[in-house]
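REQUEST FORM: STRUCTURE PREDICTION
Request ID: SP-0412
Submitted by: Lab K.M.
Chain count: 1
Length (residues): 379
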Amino acid sequence: MNSLKNVAECFEIQGKIINIEHINKGYINRTYKIESLSENNHVHQYILQRINTNVFPDVDALMSNFQLTTAHLFNTLKMPGEHKRGTVQTLRPTKDGKLYYEDSTGVWRMMTYFDNVYSLDIPENAEVFYYAGVSFGGFIKSMTSVDINKVKEVIPNFHNTLSRYRDLESAISRDPVNLVDDVEDEIKFVRSRTEMFGKITEALESGLIPTRICHNDCNLNNILFDEITHLPVAIIDLDTVMPSSPLYDFGDSMRIGTNTAKDDEKDLTKVSCDLVLFESYARGYLEACGDILTKEELELLPYASLIITVEDGIRFLMDHINGDTYYHIDYPGQNLDRARTQLKLLEDMEIKLPEIRRVLQKIYDAQCLEAKVCEYIEI
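STATUS: Completed
RESULT:
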C-alpha cells in the first residue's frame, strides 16, 4: 500500500490520501480506488490503474487514444441518465503534466471516479439492456465525427476472428504446457466452423462495409448506471477504442448480455441466448445509430453475435492452451470453462438464427431502415 500511495501522490490530486481500495473488476489492468481528504474535510475520490503493458505495449498510443476519445465524448455523447461528472472517465495528469507515470512498479494512470453509480455483469431486465443498446449505439454515432486517422490501432487484429483462429492453431502446434490432448472436443468444434471466421473481416478489407471508430469491448459492466434513476450515465474502459466495425461491438454486447449463465459456468445446460434480451438491446442500439449504418452492415448484423461469440471462445481456449498468460484467472481451468461457455452459447445461437433474423427484420421495418435480412447467408 505504501508503494501505491507513493504512485498516487505523483498525480494532481487534492488533499492527503486516506484510503486505497483494490477494485476487483476486469481481466486486464489492476484498478484501485483512491480517497483523499482536503483541508476543508472534503473527501475526493480517484481511480488509479496500472496498465498491463503486456497487452498494451505502446502506452503512448494507448493514452493518446484515451485522451482523444474522452475529450470528444465528454462534449458530444449524451447518455440516457446524463451526469454532472460527464459521460466518461477523464484523466488526471501527473504533477509534471504527463498522461501517465512510470516507475519500477509499472505504468500508471489516474482518472476521475464516478460516485453514486453501479455496474452490472448481466442485465437485470430487458429495459436495462435496451438502455445499454442506446448507450453503445450512441457511442458509435458520436465517434463518427472524429477523424479515424487520429485513432491508433493499439492491439492489431483485435477483432479479426480469422487471425484469432490462426493464433489458436499456432498455440495448438506449440502446446507449451501439454494441454491440447485434454481439449480435443473443443478444438474439433472450432475447426468445424472456420468458414464463418472471415465474414466481417473480409467485408471490411474489401470495402463492402466501412471501418468506423468502435469501443471494441461492449461488456455491460462497462456502462455505469445512476443509483437513483437506474439509467446509464457513463461508458468506461476505453482502452480498446480503435478502428473496427460496429458489428463487433453489437455482437459482443449480445454475447455477454443475452447469455443466461455466467461466463465461466460449468453446467452448460444453463447456457442459452435469451431472445427477449436480444430484441431489447437491438432496438435500443439501432434507435441510437441505425440511421448511420449501411445496408450491407445491417444485412450482416444477424451474424455478428455468432462470429464474436466463437471469437471469444477461441481466445479463451487459446489462453488455456498457452497456460493462462493473457486473462486473469481465479482458479485453474477457468479459461477452459469460459471457452466451453462461449462455444455452447454459439451452438444455441446457431439454432436460434432464423428467429434472430426475424427479430432484426422487424426492427428494421419499424425504424424504416432500408435493409432486408437474407433468409440464409452461408456462415
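NOTES: The first strand starts at residue 16 and ends at 23.
Reviewed by: T.R.
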